[in-house]
Specification:
There is one protein chain. This protein is α/β, with parallel strands linked by helices and 433 residues long. The protein folds into two domains: 3-135 and 297-356, D-Maltodextrin-Binding Protein, domain 2 (3-Layer(aba) Sandwich), CATH 3.40.190; 137-296 and 377-430, Periplasmic binding protein-like II (D-Maltodextrin-Binding Protein, domain 2). It is 43% helix and 13% strand. It has 19 helices and eleven strands. The protein has helices at 8-20, 34-41, 43-50, 61-73, 88-94, 115-120, 143-148, 159-169, 190-200, 217-233, 243-251, 265-268, 311-321, 324-334, 345-349, 351-354, 359-368, 392-407, 413-430; strands at residues 25-31, 53-59, 81-84, 122-123, 126-127, 130-135, 137-142, 177-180, 255-261, 280-284, 298-303. The strands form three sheets. Strands 2-1-3-11-6 form a five-stranded mixed β-sheet. The longest helix is centred in the last third of the chain and has 18 residues, at 413-430.
Length: 433
């Protein structure tokens, strides 16, 4: 069982040797997702091995993005390690704002990182953040409610099937909603879901000349489909729901289906937290027959801001938290279903992990995501649920507000799209595109 991780002792020894000379206190900004909370609970293992003490700043996703972006662009120096993703890492790495991770020791085995994750966190072949976990998105569904509706979920369903199933599974009198989807405004919240979904409908953010495309029929079809489906089969107050809110609803048995991050699978199947743990099935994110599925590609990764005075200690933490040995540590304490997924090839080769019910669908979802060709028609940007340009986060944050308002019934779909088109056009012209 431990043969694959035989280098763990060597890594621990190298960490201890490196850390013993000068113990540091390092500050890490991270997101309040379950895997990150679990990592905090295991930090004593790192401190024992290195002597370094870790202080955590744990933030809701939208707040985290704002805080770390402000800190790195103003050289604020609040954090020694930041939890960032595939959007920020290449942009910040190219700007010289992150410490390159090009000197990790051989026993760390950087070549074991899944190519999709390594590529998305690198600039010109140099890694600038190490993936703590990687994800795509997929359908998580209640097998009992699907059966009760007289339906069988295909491995690769269409949006038409999913919408029909959601309406069939909805029982509002008993507090069961056929589908839970992100509605909370934010470029990494509702816009991550809607941008990936729009790809499957043939929509795109920009044409090849960087002209905004929200005035095109594909975006209208996407947003109308989403708003109508959520009105018919979604929970009340959906415009306030992001990843964590929908996770809670699903665990309470209130969602027939939930399309979201593959990493959620371990939480919805954990009997300690989920009332429906033994009634969950998995399928690929839906398509519309146009050749693209509505699944994204993301990694929550650990990067080191260039302004830190504690680079060596920060690198030691990253080696510890994103190593094969950390996976073994979680497996020993929490079980194989709860190890951070989607980052290392060796995990999916491990016989212990192959029995985890969502492992295959997670890997298939990750491998099917293509950030270099994300849309039906050509685009000038890279990224599935985002466009990898510095202006995107600000623009998508504003567009997300308009789309959340449409979902909440505060304005029509047409009004939301018109505002999205106008503000995106203005911002892109101001940026010189």
């Amino acid at each position: 069982m431990f043969a694959k991780y035989a280098l763990g002792a060597a890594t621990a020894i190298s960490l201890i040797a490196a850390g013993s000379a000068s113990a540091e206190t390092i500050t890490i900004a991270t997101v309040n997702n379950g895997d990150m909370i679990r990592m905090q609970g295991l930090t004593d293992d790192f401190t024992t091995k290195t002597g370094h003490v870790v202080e955590w700043v744990t933030l809701e996703e939208n707040v985290l993005r704002q805080r770390v972006t402000t800190d790195i662009t103003t050289k604020g120096g609040q954090f020694d390690i930041m939890t960032i993703g595939m959007y920020e890492t290449p942009i910040w790495g190219r700007n010289g704002w992150l410490v390159p991770l090009d000197d990790l020791p051989a026993e760390y085995d950087a070549d074991d990182i899944l190519p999709a994750m390594r590529g998305g966190l690198s600039v010109d072949g140099t890694l600038y953040a190490a993936p703590f976990y990687g994800e795509s998105s997929m359908i998580m569904y209640r097998t009992d409610l699907m059966e009760k509706a007289g339906l069988e979920m295909p491995d690769a369903p269409t949006w038409e099937f999913v919408a029909g199933a959601a309406r069939a599974m909805t029982d509002k009198d008993n507090g069961i909603y056929g589908i839970c989807l992100r509605g909370k405004a934010g470029w990494g919240e509702n816009m991550a879901f809607l941008t990936a979904t729009a790809n499957a409908f043939g929509a795109r953010w920009f044409d090849e000349n960087w002209q905004a495309q929200f005035d095109q029929p594909e975006w209208k079809e996407t947003l109308e489909f989403y708003v109508n489906l959520m009105n018919d089969a979604g929970p009340p107050g959906a415009s306030n729901n992001g990843f964590n809110e929908n996770l809670s609803l699903f665990q309470q048995g209130k969602c027939g289906m939930w399309i979201d991050a593959t990493v959620a699978a371990s939480f919805v199947t954990n009997p300690d937290d989920s009332t429906v743990a033994n009634k969950v099935g998995f399928a690929l994110a839906p398509d519309t027959g146009k050749g693209k599925r509505g699944n994204w590609l993301w990694a929550w990764a650990l990067g080191i801001p260039a302004g830190t005075q504690k680079t060596d200690a920060a690198k030691e933490f990253i080696q510890w938290a994103t190593s094969k040995e950390y996976i073994e540590l979680v497996a020993a304490k929490e079980g194989w279903a709860n190890v951070p997924p989607g980052a290392r090839t060796s995990l999916y080769e491990d016989p212990n992990y192959k029995d985890v019910p969502f492992a295959r669908m997670t890997l298939e979802s990750i491998l099917s995501a293509d950030p270099t060709n994300p849309t039906v028609d050509p685009v000038p940007y890279v990224g599935i649920q985002f466009a990898a340009i510095p202006e995107f986060a600000g623009i998508a944050g504003q567009v997300g507000q308009e789309f959340a308002a449409a979902l909440a019934g505060q304005q029509s779909v047409d009004e939301a799209l018109a505002k999205a088109q106008a503000l995106t056009t203005d911002e892109m012209e101001a940026a010189g595109y």
